């Protein structure tokens, strides 16, 4: 793992969201385009590889996947008759002096590659971030509240008009940051000498990613 982190850390910065990745014992390690930021997955029992299973990390991860308040929240926000399921679960690690992450939506280019159409769809993709280390407003997650309905080209005007607000979520262990995959957000830099980590779970409507083996589903509603 340390070797993979060193190799990925040496990759050049890029405007691409991910610049390089390695596989270590079934764990997918990806370097963000901004230096010092890494995404590791999967950690859940359903998809975890040999490394995570051998260290018992899948069992440690289990309480983060579906705490009762999130299960209740998902039942009310996922607007799909098919219900919802856990898509994937992982960890985001930000090393000391890591750069600011890129602005992005978790839905990426969406389902149709048409931003206007994709933002008009009922919400089908959500993320929950659970910090393992306390974060301040200088190093938390920055979100554009209201951006889930605004095209990228109109965000500047919407912010100026007060229709979209920039907020930074400071958090501590035990907190959960839950938001739609349509919300534009980014990770703030880590100016400290300490590594900052959080675990995340992605929830989607069951119809998303058609073709998954339904018999292997463990976390649904």
TrEMBL record:
One Pfam family recorded for the sequence: PhyH
Tell me which domain of life the UniProt entry assigns to the organism this sequence originates from: Eukaryota
Its recorded name reads: Phytanoyl-CoA dioxygenase family protein
Q: Which organism is it from?
A: Emiliania huxleyi (strain CCMP1516)
